[in-house]
Amino acid sequence: MALRALTRALGSLSLTPRIAAVPGPSLLLAAQVTNNVLLPLPSPSMLLPCRPVLTSVALSAKFVSWKSRTKYTVMPVKMRKSGGRNHTGRIQVHGIGGGHKQRYRMIDFLRFRPEQESKPGPFEEKVITVRYDPCRQVWDVRWWSADIALVAGGNRKRWIIATENMQAGDTILNSDHIGRMAVAAREGDAHPLGALPVGTLINNVESEPGRGAQYIRAAGTCGVLLRKVNGTAIIQLPSKRQMQVLETCIATVGRVSNVDHNKRVIGKAGRNRWLGKRPNSGRWHRKGGWAGRKIRPLPPMKSYVKLPSAAAQS
Length: 314
Fold this sequence. Notes:
The chain has 4 helices and 16 strands. The chain is mainly β. GO terms for molecular function: RNA binding; structural constituent of ribosome.
């Protein structure tokens, strides 16, 4: 009777409709006999289906990543931290974890972007504010990277990489014209490499025309325009490596802001945690100079032979 009650309970919990079937010969052989009563085993339709168990971390379907946004906005966008984990929930980078909440600000690396494509030509923009960007922190330096500037021209605002001496209220020029004579560019202006004089300090250089800045974007860095050869320009990167690109590639005049970014003193381990840097395991730390044998210069040779003095020889 207990088995019959259990069978009836499982049938009521089944997610699929119950099918009344007469037990076949194979099922009769596997039947159980209790108190001289023949009770068939529960059919597969009466059993609960096995639900797969999700053992990895999954993001909510309502969450929209900032990378999937196609419409540009100057407003800070919410960003979720990954903690060094990939889409399966497994740790890929052990040095990332924690840190203060950050909001992402979309940087427009294409300096020459006219507001109206039907009216191409040089245009000016005004710097509204210059501030630091928490999302431009890089892992090989001790502090955040370059500052960013909010510029406005016409009915449009956008964030760009600020130069060293850029301040609120400045007016910057964006041009794609290459004249017969080199221009007298000011710091913060964007011009094609073919329009700049040789020896100009530049940053935010394009590798291909219209692709956007890809080189010399880190804080305090700058390149040098060395020479122009047959419609191309040869520039020197901060690593002293030379690169040849088309002279129509856009570059910004001057040095990237936040030159002293690597001179700040962290002071304590908790400050690194604020920046989202997680320490390594103490088991694998390298030993300092206290461990092992000390490396010292060899002692002078000890001699037990009394050599005659110079006065005695004379």
